[in-house]
């Protein structure tokens, strides 16, 4: 079976929803929890907390990538300060959605870990009054990236919180946060939403055709953010198709080295493009705040502020490459999960159903044990790229292990 090019897939809608699809819901027609598809028990738990006079002061939101834990935390922060408990349409809800609410701090890091000075700044922010709103809410994404020292600095603030302050920490699992922290937080566990729920959201919110929405939900493995990007960005679809096709072509050491180099190059290109775009946007915003024209030369006394932006962009670059490679490894893992499904004749729909013919050929070349070994190699590589192993070295070691080998005996 030939592989359909990304350009052959149905094109996304632009301004007008395609015939037969459901138009996007108008802004504000649903509550802030509307996008938490497949998480009804979580929504009920959060709505109950919002309606109480004194919600728990510290929360821990956990769930695997794609579960929407950060979106849930933001929705909760919006609902806590909304006069209608999360209408999605009032000024307060809109400010949270824009990341500019005066009483809601949305904190993340592009570094390998949070610095102690970052955490101390959060604690200082937590002391401020909510400025006319009900609660000061501090949402800390990637709380698992806090070192033990940084976590210990945060611990006292959570043990003895200021009045009208709510902490919301986000992490992949409770085990990723020190027990001293999680024992003081109310736990909210999110799961990966069903593919049908993700597709329905894409149809309703983004005006996509059912065919494109279902394809994006499936190949993204139900990750809402990734699904939307794949559905609406032709270049993202093309890169993914190239990524998942690479192991289907690797049959020798030389091909493995070339494939590894290509994976790293794609990750670096994506990271650089994203970093440059963000730096340009930040510089333009800083110019506006300082009253500088777009092409006006920066006065010497203001250059330090622009230099800080450039330095921060440089620090982000390493994590951007790591994150891009991790997404690549998740896509490759889906390939071998499909192969294992074919080997075991489970009859389940494949994640990469459109590549069934080529996956069947790879399944013929691998035993179930070899397929499991490839999955283990992919998991090992995901760990290595977070441990300062050079990306090229990690990818070369991986691709060498993915070469099909003739079964012994």
TrEMBL record:
Recorded superkingdom: Bacteria
Family matches, as Pfam families:
DNA_pol3_delta2 (PF13177)
Span of domain AAA+ ATPase? 55-193
The segments labelled Disordered in the record are 1-29
Q: What is its EC number?
A: 2.7.7.7
Instruction: Using the record for this protein, list the coiled-coil segments as residue ranges, or answer none.
Output: none
Mind listing the GO molecular function terms for this protein?
3'-5' exonuclease activity; DNA binding; DNA-directed DNA polymerase activity
Which keywords describe this protein according to UniProt?
Nucleotidyltransferase, Transferase
- What processes in GO biological process is this protein linked to? DNA-templated DNA replication
| Stored PANTHER family | DNA POLYMERASE III SUBUNIT DELTA, REPLICATION FACTOR C / DNA POLYMERASE III GAMMA-TAU SUBUNIT
Provide the protein name. Answer: DNA polymerase III subunit delta
